[in-house]
Design a protein that fits this description.
With 143 residues, the chain is α+β, with helices and mostly antiparallel strands. 73% of the residues lie in helices and 13% in strands.
Length: 143
């Protein structure tokens, strides 16, 4: 079991390295990639609190990214009509174009790798990852 667990850890590090290469090729940070992924999931418009929660990043990191995107004129912020203390964030066309370009490149590479595996192996991989994640979360939360 210990040998396989070490293999799992090594594979996870190798995956991170591959994604880090893609991030660097697109002159991004991993945090910005997470922000783009969450924005796309929400059709490019969501509350700041939702962005923080769904990226899993520290509030300061997300706020810094939002401020940078704002200076680059890629994001617009509005007061949340349901909560005046909160902001609604909207990636404008320029921000959406960058997000789509980066995520299209990422997904194209992922799709080619997944096609080489085949749908059954991909489903099995997803199921096993989901189960491992749930087990690991349980261990961390039981701390």
């Amino acid at each position: 079991m210990e040998t396989e667990l070490k293999r799992y850890t090594a594979d996870r590090i190798a995956f991170n390295h591959v994604y880090d290469q893609l991030i660097a090729q697109n002159r991004l940070t991993s945090s910005l990639l997470y922000v783009f992924i969450v924005f796309e999931t929400h059709d490019f418009k969501l509350p700041l609190t939702c962005l923080i929660k769904e990226t899993g990043l520290p509030k300061q990191t997300v706020t810094s990214i939002v401020n940078k995107l704002s200076r680059e004129e890629k994001i617009v912020t509005f007061p949340d009509p349901t909560d005046k203390r909160s902001k609604i964030l909207y990636l404008n066309e320029v921000g959406q174009e960058q997000t789509r370009a980066v995520l299209t490149e990422l997904r194209t590479k992922e799709l080619k790798a997944a096609q080489a595996l085949g749908i059954e192996k991909l489903r099995l991989l997803n199921d096993l990852n989901e189960e491992m994640l749930a087990n690991l979360k349980g261990q961390v939360e039981d701390k």
